[in-house]
Amino acid sequence: MTLLGRLALMLLVLVTAAGPASAQGTLAVQIPTEPPGLDLTASPASAIAAVVHYNVQECLVKVDRNGKLVPWLADRWYTTDSKNYTFFLKKGVHFHNGREMKAADVKFVLERAANPETKHPFQKRYEIIREIIVKDDYTASIALKEVNANFLLEMARQGSVIYPREAVDTLKSAPIGTGPFTVADWVRGDRIVLAKNKDYHVKGLPHLDKVTFRFIPDPNSALAALKSGDIDVSAFGLGPENVVDLKKDPRFQVILGDTTNDVILAMNNSRKLYSDKRVRLAITHAINKEEVLKGAMFGLGRILGSNVDPLNPYFVDMSKAVPYDPAQAKKLLAEAGYPNGFDAVLRVSPQYYYTVRTGEVLVSQLAKVGIKVKIEQIEWGQWLSQVYKDANYDLTIIGHAEPWDIGNYANPGYYFRWDNKDFQALYRESEQTVDDKKRREQFARLQKMMADEAPVVWLYMHPRLVVTKKGVTGIWKDLPISSMDLTEVAWQR
Amino acid sequence: MVATLLFVSVLVFVVVRVLPGDPAIVMLGLDASPDTVARLRASMGLDRPLPVQYMEWMGAALQGNLGRSIQYDVPVAGLILSRLAVTLPLTLMAAALMAFAAVPLGVYAATHHRRWGDYLTMTLSQLGIAVPAFWAGLLLVLLFSVHLGWFASGGFDGWGQGVGGAFKSLLLPAIALGLFQFAVLARTTRSAVLEVLREEYVKTARAKGVSERLVLFRHALRNAMIPILTVAGVQLGQLMAGSIILESVFYLPGLGRLALGAITARDLPVVQGVVLFVASVIVVINAAVDVLYGLTDPRIRYE
Questions:
Q1: What are phi and psi of A118, to 5 degrees?
Q2: Distance from CA of B151 to the nearest CA of A (A)
Q3: B-chain residues near A37 (CB < 8 A)
Q4: CB contact, 8 Å: B257 with chain A?
Q5: Min Cα separation A233/chain B (Å)
Q6: Are the C-beta atoms of B130 and B184 separated by less than 8 Å?
Q7: Least CA distance to A174: which residue of chain B?
Q8: What is the β-pairing status of strands A342-348 and A371-377?
Q9: Which positions of chain A have pLDDT values less than 50?
Q10: What is the pLDDT of residues A271-317, one digit of tens each?
Q11: Does A386 reach chain B within 8 Å, measured CB to CB?
Q12: Which of A14, A122, A215 shows the shortest C-beta gap to B251?
């Protein structure tokens, strides 16, 4: 046989080897970045939360798919003054190493989080705990230094996962928890494999036997992997430009939902130009948010008027508070002393490509009122250093994914550099208000203040875009908290 | 060689630290308090004077210890070795495909100069040069993976899953990776052989009645090898560097992707380690090419 013939035969043999098949009970999920370790107490990275939070490790309380706080590792809790909480733990919950979860574990975890030596990413939030008393194996009392409206929510977030003290050293590479899945394997650079926890404390769950997380950073590769059947779910990898096409494909289902990611045009309030409220309002009036959504996001997402997003129970729709009105924008600019507009530099990071597309739409809209914007694309590390840390920018666009992050606007040191004493005072008050009706009213006032003062322009809520093979059920439609909860996911029979 | 490596080590060390971007902030994200960030920076040793940091790193590196990755908290040397298990075979496969396709094609074109075989080769090589690697990769995925389903769209299951499967994962990326270099090498081979075929001694050999086959393989090719080898040697280094893009397209856990991820995350020990490693490899390859000259050309002998 000729050399060519031999080569052709070799190729044929290679090619006809069986391709991948998704067995029922296994799921391949794509995530764009590999988690930098799997330790939720060392890094706030959402990639870690996607793999670990609610899958491998769980909390006393859980935020469910509808955004509601529900009892989880704690059966119930009890408080009369919202300053002292008593949690009654579920009995018979075992860690993956076999040991039963006890109140002492809760005490250990929370004290470790509050300890500055641990370098917990959200350490400051645990400083409000004055004391934790273990009443018995299944009862823990937590006394706070002052009333805090966010305490229960904090107990549901990724920094509060319960793990056994003897497994602290393995948190980074193979974390142990009480969750429906255990970490079976981590092939660095390629995938993480989770296996079913047969002793899970909720009977009948999970449905899946095995989950494989594959790290595919490029959206085109993610699309190819989905279409060729190498993955079953693409959670955070595809953008609206891919989704529009996939909606028409009968092999896949597109899940469109809400998130807590508010995409904003931030203005540097410490620079003379943007310290003038009239200029900020002018910019807001100059922006046609409908067009932005259509141009940058193919119409997917929801328009915002303040930081609070639709998934928040206290959400008030402020999107019409400062409407699109270029005439008013020009008027305000003239009043502020800029009748011919001004020049500005918009810094965005292509790592989050929707910010670049958004910027391109905004440039043309702002030009119509005389504001000539130049887009500067900078690398993510540089954005963090120059824009976020040093506030060295005029304008920037970024999405803030954390839920309940209104506190950033009460922080004059945050990169917006907005220092409004009234807002700060009202915010502090709301942090200590546990009465639902009263807090709702405070939040309404906070949102109105934000719309009136326009420290930034709230553009839109980034939609949740999940694409899965037909037949995958149980994936959360909305994303009220950073997690890729697979507890109830199954293949339809 | 040592001086080059020393220079490279200083350069990468300085550049990586001078660039804006703080590993602590990258790690802790947008909602961390400044205290936590400062504490993390201090624990990483980033607040000490640069020369001190450099001496510590260099000292350890000379003993084979390239530090620990900030992201993964594993030794950098081990990380590099594990990624090499993908990038090295990928690079070698691309080089092999490139050489075994380019050299015969170049020779064929040279011996069929100005006939349709030559024109076909030149067109093919022109395409190879014009098509960017990532696009070639995507096209290959589209055809062979999405449409035909013959190959996975990417990923690498590891050598433990069988050599055949591993090679299969690397085939498409190797083709895309080697495409540009194949085109360049084909042209280089063609011109080198053409040049040699015009030499006086070739005319003499033909006049003596030596068969065309022997003229080509015994006389012409050996002399044409020098420029071919030079280019191929340089290309090997470029292949290694070029793998960075294709490893992203095919989501392969290779050295290129490790470097890319480390740069974005400001994982300084990894970036330094990878650059130093790749620089060393290129320096060694160049030295090896020099030695090869001596073997093929008796006029150039290494003392």
A1: -70, -25
A2: 7
A3: 71-73
A4: yes
A5: 15
A6: no
A7: B72
A8: parallel
A9: 15-21
A10: 999 999 999 999 999 999 999 999 999 999 999 999 999 999 999 99
A11: yes
A12: A215
pLDDT digits (tens, 9 = 90+) for A114-170: 998 898 989 989 999 999 999 999 999 999 999 999 999 999 999 999 999 999 999
Question: Of B81, B70, B72, which is closest to residue B16 (Cα–Cα)?
Answer: B70
The Cα-based distances of A82 to A125, A148, A180 in angstroms read 16, 7, 31
Give the residue from chain A lying closest to B73, CA to CA.
A37
**Which of B36, B97, B250 is the mutation pick for testing A, counting most A CBs within 10 A?**
B36
Alpha helices in A57-214 (DSSP H): 103-114, 151-154
B205 φ/ψ angles, rounded to the nearest 5 degrees: -60, -45
Cα–Cα nearest to B93, from B239, B234, B238: B239
How many Å separate Cα A485 from the centre of its chain? 13
Residue whose C-alpha is closest to residue A161's, from A221, A73, A260, A36: A73
DSSP assignment of A403-428 equals TT-GGGGG-TTSTT----HHHHHHHH
Nearest CA among B45, B61, B48 for reference residue B12: B61
Contact A413 B34 (CB under 8 A): yes
For chain B, the residue count is 303
In chain B, what is the greatest distance between 2 CA atoms, to the nearest angstrom? 86
Residues with Cβ within 8 Å of A39's Cβ and at least 6 positions away in sequence, in order, are A48, A171, A172, A175
Q: Are strands A464-469 and A252-257 parallel, antiparallel or unpaired?
A: antiparallel
Q: Which of A19, A172, A385 is nearest residue B149 as measured by Cβ atoms?
A: A19
The pLDDT, as a whole number, for residue A11 is 56
Peptide linkage before A206 cis (omega within 30 of 0)? yes
Q: If you count residue pairs, one on A and one on B, with CB atoms under 8 Å apart, how many are there?
A: 158
Query: How much is the ipTM here?
Result: 0.81
pLDDT at B19 over 80: no
State whether A17 and B164 contact (CB < 8 Å).
yes
Cα-only R_g, chain B: 24
B107-154 pLDDT per residue, tens: 889 888 888 888 998 998 999 999 998 899 999 999 999 999 899 888
**Cis amide prior to A463 (ω within 30 degrees):** no
Calpha distance A390→A10 (Å, rounded): 58
Residue B248 has pLDDT above 90, yes or no: no
**Of A33, A29, A34, A45, whose CA–CA distance to A482 is shortest?**
A45
Are residues A225 and B154, on separate chains, in Cβ contact within 8 Å? Answer: yes
CA torsion through residues B72, B77, B82, B84, sign: positive
How many other β-carbons are positioned within 10 Å of the β-carbon of residue B149?
15
